[in-house]
Design a protein that fits this description.
10 helices; about 35% helix; eight-stranded parallel barrel; cytoplasm; alpha/beta; TIM Barrel
Length: about 260
């Protein structure tokens, strides 16, 4: 059985680390480069970097910040935000990332998934899914709808159907973020996580809602996720990566312990 991964997420706006609740009220909370280095030293399995306003502002990602982070860490590094073409993917990978994450651009142009997988391999292509719970309807039979542009635009697209299509197009991994749970620290949306895990055969990262290590354990056990994405609980110093992983291991999760 593969070890479950713990992945700190760095949401970046204007080159600074930021955090909000349910995609709103974001506040500046520090330097993403310093945070990435600290999480790497604490035992993070991977780092995710999102330029959260790049797509909405129709601009490219801040490659200088990507390069500075890549110089400080020696674990897999995934970068997303404003990636709309294979050329954008190449630029991010050349800046030091191992993976690229596409979200809004993939919904608008699904071919970017297959084009990226063909150019760089499926292992380098992560599709980020921002998901909102909605009433069940003919268009959204799962009750989970895909939204893009940082939660600003609802797409009338069923999340489970989109997950399956992403896999078919060559995505190597899905990062499923519940907007309803994001930043609340009340726990992951386990029903959503499990539904996506059961719908595909590629790894699924649970995102949105971690408030304590127990929630991370629930995401990889009850939710079936391959990894748990975390932000607030480590950004604000409530828990260290080490403490999170030790708690998960004590509960029975297989995690990589490096100390």
């Amino acid at each position: 059985m593969l070890s479950k991964r713990v992945i700190p997420c760095l949401d970046v706006r204007n080159g600074r680390l930021t955090k909000g609740v349910k995609f709103a009220g974001n506040q500046d909370i520090g330097d993403p480069v310093e945070s990435a280095r600290r999480y790497y030293e604490e035992g993070a399995d991977e780092i995710v970097f999102y330029d959260i306003t790049a797509s909405a502002e129709a601009r490219g990602i801040f490659l200088d910040v990507v390069e500075r982070v890549a110089e400080q860490i020696f674990i897999p590094f995934s970068v997303g935000g404003g990636i709309a073409t294979v050329a954008d993917m190449r630029a991010v990978l050349l800046a030091g990332a191992e993976k690229v994450s596409v979200n809004s651009a993939a919904v608008k142009n699904p071919r970017i998934i297959s084009e990226g997988a063909e150019a760089f391999g499926s292992q380098a292509i992560v599709v980020g899914m921002d998901v909102l719970a909605v009433p069940v309807s003919e268009a959204i039979p799962s009750g989970y709808e895909i939204v893009i542009h940082g939660g600003r635009a609802r797409m009338g697209l069923d999340a489970l159907a989109w997950a399956r299509r992403c896999q078919d197009l060559g995505a190597g991994e899905l990062c499923v973020n519940s907007i309803d749970a994001d930043g609340t620290k009340d726990g992951y949306e386990l029903k959503l996580t499990r539904a996506i895990v059961d719908a595909v055969s590629i790894p699924v990262i649970a995102s949105g809602g971690a408030g304590e290590p127990r929630h991370m354990y629930e995401a990889v056990s009850e939710g079936g996720a391959s990894a748990a994405l975390i932000a607030s609980i480590v950004h604000y110093g409530e828990y260290s990566i080490r403490r999170c992983k030790e708690d998960m291991a004590a509960r029975g999760a297989k995690v990589r312990l490096t100390w």
